[in-house]
Design brief:
Blueprint (H helix, E strand, L loop, with lengths): L6 H11 L7 H9 L1 H16 L3 H19 L1 E2 L8 E2 L20 H12 L18 H12 L12 H28 L6 H142 L4 H5 L8 H16 L4 H5 L6 H13 L14 H9 L5 H9 L4 H8 L12 H10 L4 E2 L1 H10 L3 H6 L3 E2 L15 H10 L4 H4 L5 H14 L4 H4 L4 H14 L1
Parallel strand pairs: 3-4
Antiparallel strand pairs: 1-2
Length: 577
């Protein structure tokens, strides 16, 4: 999203506000990179300047710190003039966008597949040649004449040629007979004689025998004619069959060309189909190569991301270890009175109760020898009455830290209540009688005169109602709350009444501080290893501060709003063991 403001807008607004001198180099650099963030910090600085209370100033600083941390990865401290780089955490991990796969061949493959699926079956448009035998009837007729031809036989009487020869030879025989008779008659003087008759008969017989001799010749002629006729029929059949064969050969040639053309057309059809299929396989292969490359890129991306994330975690762990080491050193130094290391870590120790207590104890010690400057630096006016109380307290304190005399509550108990924020009249009386002014109590324990007594939170009320749904609390539990600092009026105002009964097994009575908690668990027979887990108020406070500053310390610290809550819950846990 584009910025609403430009860097020029920010510079003009900063100059007109008169707050330019309060911007650190880090803030100015962030404003240059993100003018909107710079304008937000300027607004919070104006709120800080115009704030009438410490709470309002703290809220303004908190808002500016949120902008710095969110957009610049750093904080500026309580006044925004320092530079503390935000520690790395896993949430800071960023990686480039993962490779995405785009099928560049999807349309090509889809189109080729549609062509292949819709290619259809093969069909040839040309009509197939058909054979029509024009000579079939003639061939069948000739074949019938040849196959069914009568056997050869010869009868001279039925032979026209023989009849002609017979007429001729009969005529010639008659002529020869007449000639023989005439010649013989002439020789005999015209008188018929047997010789003439015999000569005439011989001449006639000669021509008769000549005619008979012609029969074999005529038989052969007739047989030859029979065979010639047979051969003619065979020749005719062969001619007709030759013509038919010529037609059939022409049909075969046409059929062969038809088959050749059809085979060529089918091959062309198959070639086109195979081309489409080959193109489809080629496109699919190229797409698979692209997809394999994408998988390789994705695998490398995941490998690089895991490696980079591992590097970040190593750095986070390294920074965490360094911060933990620095914090432990700073806390150790603070326990010895040196808060400079905590300040270097961005922790403000100006209102550190432990430091105030140390300074107060030193001021008290100096006051015993007549040096009241330390008390005055703490805002305590050492009037005569107060000096008397200081001297009396210093002289009468026991080694256990209790008060010199009188009363049911020791000073150590009253201070423990004060650490827990419990300021009953008895607690205030013991503390004041031992020289603790209201100013000191406010600085060291957060005491506010109008907020005396322990005020029950919503969680306290819910928890108590869970234990006593009808609102009737047994006497022991009632007294434990009163001893803890909750007034009976507060209990009654929240709908609870006392019935005087005994407490249940899970309720804790009489447990108000670390010492009483240990005593309670010892009396209950709780194992020492369980008791050893109970933190002192200073340890709990230190871990609570560590938790708030660096996000460590454990759930047993962060789940309680006060040390008293922690004591009560831990005792219930110990009782359950």
């Amino acid at each position: 999203m584009a910025n609403r403001y430009t860097y020029d807008d920010f510079q003009k607004a900063m100059q007109s506000s008169g707050l330019g001198g309060q911007f650190s180099d880090a803030d100015l650099k962030l404003a240059q990179q993100n003018p909107d963030a710079g304008m937000s910090i300027l607004k919070y600085k104006q709120d800080y300047k115009n704030a009438a209370t410490d709470e309002a100033r703290a809220l303004a600083n908190l808002g500016a710190e949120g902008i710095r941390s969110s957009y610049g990865g750093y904080t500026g401290g309580q006044r925004g003039e320092n530079f503390y780089l935000d520690p790395l955490s896993p949430k800071d991990f960023q990686s480039s966008a993962a490779p995405t796969y785009k099928n560049n061949y999807a349309d090509t493959i889809s189109g080729l597949l549609d062509k292949q699926l819709g290619y259809g079956s093969y069909s040839y448009g040309e009509a197939q040649p058909e054979y029509n035998n024009r000579y079939d009837a003639t061939i069948q007729d000739l074949l019938d004449q040849i196959v069914n031809r009568k056997d050869f036989s010869y009868d001279p009487e039925n032979d026209q040629l023989y009849s002609q020869y017979r007429k001729q030879y009969t005529r010639e025989g008659q002529r020869a007979t007449q000639d023989a008779l005439g010649a013989a008659a002439a020789a005999s003087g015209g008188i018929p004689s047997s010789y003439a008759v015999n000569a005439a008969a011989q001449a006639g017989d000669y021509y008769a025998s000549q005619m008979t001799d012609k029969i074999p010749e005529l038989y052969q002629l007739a047989y030859n004619k029979y065979m010639n006729d047979y051969n003619m029929k065979l020749s005719d059949l062969g001619a007709v069959q030759g013509a038919e064969q010529s037609d059939y050969d022409k049909f075969l040639n046409e059929m062969q060309q038809y088959n050749t053309n059809r085979a060529f057309d089918y091959q062309a059809w198959m070639d086109e189909y195979n081309r489409i299929n080959n193109d489809l396989q080629t496109a699919s292969g190229l797409e698979q190569l692209d997809y394999t490359k994408y998988l390789n890129d994705l695998n490398q991306y995941n490998t690089d991301r895991s490696f980079n994330y591992g590097q970040l975690l190593d750095e986070v762990n390294n920074q965490t270890a360094r911060r933990s080491e620095a914090m432990n050193k700073a806390l150790t130094a603070a326990e010895l009175g040196d808060n400079s290391f905590l300040n270097d870590l961005g922790i403000n120790t100006d209102n550190n109760p432990t430091d105030y207590e140390r300074r107060y104890q030193l001021a008290q010690l100096a006051a015993q020898y007549g040096d009241y400057s330390g008390l005055r630096e703490l805002g305590i006016n050492p009037d005569a009455a107060a000096l008397n109380r200081f001297n009396t307290t210093a002289a009468g304190k026991s080694s256990s830290g209790g008060s010199r005399s009188g009363g049911n509550m020791k000073l150590s108990q009253a201070k423990e209540y004060a650490k827990q924020g419990v300021f009953t009249d008895e607690v205030l009386s013991v503390l004041r009688s031992n020289g603790y002014s209201d100013e000191y109590l406010k600085a060291a324990y957060g005491y506010e005169p109008e907020a005396t007594g322990y005020q029950m939170s919503a969680d306290d009320i819910t928890k108590l109602k869970g234990m006593f749904p009808d609102g009737v609390i047994d006497e022991a539990t009632w007294n434990s709350y009163v001893n803890y600092g909750v007034s009976e009026a507060t209990l009654k105002a929240n709908g609870f009444t006392k019935d005087g009964g005994t407490s249940g097994g899970g309720n804790i009575s009489g447990v108000t501080d670390y010492d009483s908690a240990i005593a309670y668990m010892k009396a209950a027979g709780v194992d020492g290893s369980v008791r050893s887990g109970l933190m002192t108020k200073s340890e709990w406070s230190r871990r609570k501060a560590s938790l708030q500053q660096y996000g460590t310390g454990g759930t047993e610290v962060k789940n309680y709003n006060s040390y008293a809550d922690y004591i009560k819950d831990y005792c219930e846990y110990a009782a359950s063991k």
